[in-house]
Amino acid sequence: MEKKLNDLIDKALSRRTFMAGAGSAAAATLIVGCGGGTPATTTPVTTTPVTTTPVAPAITDADILTFALNLEYLEAEYYLYAATGSGLSSADAGTGAGTTIIPSSTKVPFATSYIQQYANEIAQDELNHVRFLRSALSAAGASVQSRPAIDLTFFAGLGTAAGISGTFNPFADENSFLVGAFVFEDVGVTAYLGAAPLITNKASYLGAAAGILGTEAYHAAEIRTIIAANAAAAGASAAQTAALANANLVSALRGKISAASGNMMAAETTVSTSSIVAADTTNAIAFARTTDQVLHIVYGGTAGVGVAKGGFFPAGLNGTIKSTTT
Questions:
Q1: Is 265 exposed, middle or buried (0-12, 13-18, 19+ CB in 10 A)?
Q2: How does DSSP assign 7-30, residue by residue?
Q3: CA-CA distance, 211 to 18, in Å (whole number)?
Q4: So what's the pLDDT on residue 102?
Q5: DSSP code of 312?
Q6: Rounded distance between C-alpha atoms, residue 290 and residue 21, angstroms
Q7: CB 251, CB 270: distance < 8 Å
Q8: pTM to 2 decimals?
Q9: Where are the domains of the chain?
Q10: Residues 227 and 241 sit within 8 Å (Cβ to Cβ)
């Protein structure tokens, strides 16, 4: 697979380094109840329950790296299958990796050479992210989690939830591929921005976090620009116009899921023929998401506390950060 990918790409861009992708884990509250006792007399005696101070689970940089690795496995699998028809190698997926469920055909029949070139480049970037994270965890002496089970057929269910007409399959053609890429890239940017304040080893990882945020923002801008430009072009096809509409349906769905899990924004900034930047309108700063918001999205939008699987991850993520707390 790797040789096949390298044949498609003149050079592998190894300039990206990575640390990212997790919001804070919410504090767990432990309530200890002291039962009432009844003395020899018949007068009942009650005691006041004692509540301990909420104890936050210890989330380490390794936990954050692992959370990010799970997301990078997902992105890498999508882009590699779309660009080459093959996914991660066994060496990159790790020992005992979960199965990746795929449609009957995955290699996108690109009709436009520059879109295919972008797909190839992003596939290599995401593969490099997986390798970087696995290497960083290993160098830190932490457990390197293998790829969890991934379901790339869930795009159909996501499309239905978003209101996309018909059965959405991002591998069917290049316009559908762009919408599939749109599903992931904005989530990546918001997750990485949410991670930056949580990093404890600033010297080693903060610069890398900023670097990967920039890389994912480049990816998101590429995808948003192509979708908007195609729809705005004279003689735009029905498929190109539909791609813009479908991307905004996805954006609205993500915003709704994020709002339900505590995000202050009710919706995301949509992409249009006159605006491609996903940022707040007051300060033009990119949106940030917490771990819970990211989990609710990749698990398919199921609301509530304790959601630990679903959507693109049918058996859940690997590692410590894998269950919603809001």
A1: middle
A2: HH-SS--TT--------PPPPBP-
A3: 7
A4: 98
A5: T
A6: 9
A7: yes
A8: 0.81
A9: 2-298
A10: no
Asked whether the beta carbons of 198 and 24 are under 8 A apart, the reply is: yes
How far, in Å, are 170, 185, 209 from residue 278 at the CA level?
A: 22, 11, 19
Amino acid occupying residue 192: Y
Amino acid at 326: T
Q: Model confidence at 218, in pLDDT bands (50, 70, 90)?
A: very high
Q: How far apart are CA 252 and CA 269, in angstroms?
A: 9
Give yes or no for a contact between 226 and 246, defined as CB atoms under 8 angstroms apart.
Answer: no
Helix, strand, coil % over all residues of the chain, rounded to 5: 50, 5, 45
Residue 256's CB: how many other CB atoms inside 10 A? 16
- Strand pairing of 100-101 and 150-151? parallel
Give yes or no for residue 318 having a pLDDT over 80.
yes
Query: Closest Cα partner for 265 from 246, 249, 252, 250?
Result: 252
Lowest model confidence (mean pLDDT) among 146-160, 172-186, 211-225, 258-272: 258-272
Assigned token pair, 236: 């735009």
CA 274/CA 277 separation, integer angstroms: 10
Q: Six-digit token pair at 241?
A: 């116009």
Enumerate residues 6+ apart whose C-beta is below 8 A from 282. none
153 exposed, middle or buried (CB, 10 Å; 0-12, 13-18, 19+)? middle
Token look-up 């449609």 returns 103
* Angle of CA points 63, 65, 71, to nearest 5°: 110
H/E run at residue 51: strand 50-51
Chain centroid to CA 89: 21
Helix pair 174-195, 202-232: axis angle to 10 deg: 150
Per the listing, tokens 């239905």 go with 160
Planar angle of CA 187, 96, 121, nearest 5 degrees? 40
In this structure, what token pair is assigned to residue 270? Answer: 């949509």
Cβ–Cβ < 8 Å for 247, 271: yes
| Residue 302 and residue 310 in contact, taking contact as beta carbons nearer than 8 Å | yes
